[in-house]
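REQUEST
  id: r-88c1
  op: predict_structure
  target: AI-2E family transporter
  payload:
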Amino acid sequence: MSANDSQLSERLQTGFLGVIAFALLLFLLVQARFMLTCLAFSIIIFSLTSDAISAFARLRVPNWLATTLALIAIAIALLWAATTVVAQVNEVVSTSILYADRAQATILSLSQRWGPRVQESILTFLGGIDFAGWIRSAASQASNLISGSVLVLTFVGFMFAERIWFPVKVERLTGDPARATEVLRIIHSIMRRVNRYLVVKAAISAVTAALIWVIFRSAGLELSGAVATLSFILNFIPTIGSIIATVIAIAVVLAQTGDPTTTLAIGSACTAVHFLIGNIFDPMLLGQTLRLSSFGIVLALAFWGAVWGIAGTFLAVPIMVAVMIVCAHIRWLRPLAVMLSHEGLPEEEPPRPRLRG
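RESPONSE
  id: r-88c1
  status: 200
  body:
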C-alpha cells in the first residue's frame, strides 16, 4: 500500500469515527435533555451570582454567609418564578378553553367574505389542528418547571460548594500554572459575556412586557399580566420569540373580543412594540455584547430547539457564545469562531479604529 493510500485510509477512518462520536453525543443530548438543560441553567445562575458573592467578599463578608444568602435568594427567586409562570400558563389555558369557540366562529365569519373555497380551506385547516392537545401539552410542560427548579437549585448548591477548589482543580488538571491561568481566563470571559447579555436582555424584555401590559390594560382586556409575562419570557428567544409573543397577543385579543377592528388595532400596537425594540434597541444594546452572526444564531436556534425543545431555544445564544470563545482560543478551531462571529472578530472587545493624524 502506498503512502497516499495509507493517509486516505486514516482520514476515512478518522471521519467515520467522528461521525459515530457525533451521533452518540447527539443521542446522549436527546436522552438526557432534562438533566442537561437543568445543568445548563444552573451554570448560568451560578455565573450570575458568583460576581455578587465576590462583591460581598470584597466588603469583608464571610464567604459562607455570602454563599448561604445567595442560595436562599436563588431558591426564593426560582420557586417564585416557576410558580408565577405555571399560574400564568394555567390562566391562559383555562381562558383559552372558554374563548376557543368564539375565536373559531370569528375566523369562520371573516372567511365568508373571501369565498367558499377559502372558507373550506380554513375549515380543513382548523379541523386538523388539535387545540386542546396543544393546550394540555403547554400546561404539562409548565408544570415541569417546579421539579426542574428543585434540580437546578441542587446543582447550584453543589457548584457553590466546589467554587473555592475549582481553580486548584484546573491547575492540577492542566499541570501547568500558565495553562491553568489561560483556561480560567477563557471561562471568566464566557461568564462575563453571557452575564452581560442576560442582564441587558432582561432589562429589554422587562420594558417590552411593561408596554404590552399597558396596551392590554388600556383596552380593558383580560390576561394582561399573563400576556406580559409570556412576552418577557419569549423575548429571550432571538428572532422568533417576539413573533410568537405577537401571535399569542393577537390570538388572545381575537378570542376575547371577536372584533377584527379591535384585534387589528391592538395587534398593530403590539407588533410596533416588538418591532421597535427588536430592531432598534436590541441591536444597539446587544451588538457589542454578543457580536454573533445572525445566521449562526438562527442555526443555533434550529439545532438546540430540535435537540432540547423549548429550553434549547433559550440556551442557544449562551451556548453559541461559549463555543465561539472557546474555538477562538484553539488554533485549528479558530475558523469556526470566525464564522460564528458577526464581523469575523470573535474576540471579546472589538479593535478600536486608529485615528489618523
